[in-house]
Design a protein that fits this description.
Helices cover 32% and strands 28% of the residues. 20% of the residues are buried. Its cofactor is Cu cation.
Length: 227
């Protein structure tokens, strides 16, 4: 989860978020390289007094400053398109978690891919006295997702538009009444992940936290038995 004074991304908890961070770092390196190149030539042009009034055309340099930006854009486009494809790949999933937004709590319905309903769970925010210092983030119940198991997330709403968001997992989907939005999630490590509603949905919009626990598969079945 995020800490005070943190400027970068939260630690990745899913394979998709890891790829997002790698892509961000790769793109930032390209941007910094281009920016440094432009700044150096601006300084040289302003301080060295290079002036060529007879310079009319230069086909080689025009070719180079056209082809190099094109190659840079291609380098950015390929990993970006690959990530977009992987996000929309729903070919393999062993569990289905349906998320239903209400004013102002979340309902979860966990089932198998063959539509066998395993449980239904309502999650309300804990008051400050029972949140153990995690103000506006803890709920009375949580959902448990097994690690390294592909899960299909279906997001919808029962009243107004909400948004189910967990930053450290790199997932965000609008919950729209009468419509299902779909996410693909595979946790890469164990831990508790926190999120909040990211769409203004009324007076208590700030009081719709999300708690998701990533654990091993035996813990998942024990959690189902407990509920």
């Amino acid at each position: 989860m995020v800490s005070w004074g943190q400027l970068g991304f939260q630690d990745a908890g899913s394979y998709f978020m890891e790829e997002f961070i790698y892509f961000h770092d790769f793109t930032m390196m390209i941007i910094l390289g281009v920016l440094s190149y432009v700044v150096v030539f601006l300084i040289l042009g302003l301080t060295s007094g290079w002036v060529n009034s007879g310079f009319v055309e230069g086909q080689l340099i025009e070719f180079l400053w056209t082809i190099f930006p094109a190659l840079i854009l291609v380098q950015i486009a390929f990993p970006s398109l690959l990530l977009l494809y992987l996000i929309e790949d729903f070919s393999k999933s062993f569990l289905v978690c349906k998320v239903i937004g209400h004013q102002w709590f979340w309902t979860y319905e966990i089932s198998t891919e063959s539509s066998d309903l395993l449980l239904t769970l309502d999650c309300y925010m804990l008051p400050r006295e029972g949140a153990f210092g995690m103000r506006l983030l803890m709920t009375d119940e949580y959902i448990l997702i097994p690690v390294n198991v592909p899960v299909r997330i279906l997001v919808t709403s029962d009243d107004v538009i909400h948004s189910w968001t967990i930053p450290s997992l790199g997932i965000k989907a609008d919950a729209v009444p009468g419509r299902l939005n779909q996410l693909n999630l595979t946790l890469s490590r164990k831990g508790m992940y926190y999120g909040q509603c990211s769409e203004i949905c009324g007076a208590n919009h700030s009081f719709m936290p999300i708690m998701l626990l990533g654990a091993a598969s035996p813990w998942f079945f024990a959690w189902l038995d407990r509920l």
